[in-house]
Amino acid sequence: MATASVRQFDCTPDDVFAVLGDGWVYPTWVVGASRMRAVDPDWPTEGSRIHHSLGVWPVLIDDDTQIIEWTPPRRVRLRAKAGPLGRAVVVIEVRPHGDGCVVRLAEEPVGAAGRLPRFLWAPLLHLRNEETIRRLRYLSEGRRIEREASPSRSSDDKTSRPGVPTPAEGTPGADAIADGAEATEANAAAASTGEA
Fold it and tell me: Residue 82: which pLDDT band, with cuts at 50, 70 and 90?
């Protein structure tokens, strides 16, 4: 069973996807990710990966997260690995709402981690994702503020990515596709029509 967190953001869906499309900033908003080691040059093409470390020094686990689906400005699905802690599928749905948008983040453990009793992982995962979506909101709204404050500045002078990346078509690995298919509850939780 998946956990889901939802927030209303005061920015456009494109602002959210500009943040999601910058693989180097993931440790800024993903709770538990402590550093980036590499970002595939074709990120966020489906099948591309970001290579990160989890934990706190000196106990760090090196692993990666792969794009299963990239369909801005609406949805991204990721397959996150965390070494011996297992794997999860993360679905982020973004929908316009008034002058802003509603973002819903759902996560579901898959593989061996998905067979653990829900009471063991769900409360901690929910707390983690509440903070994760809060951080994503701050970055996305900050991007909007920067974009609106200086529309005449060239994109070279800005600190944020100028827009939503439009990568070439790609294909996730078979293992990521299988995990994505297994995470049916994360897909349903992210697609829920509930408001923030």
Answer: confident
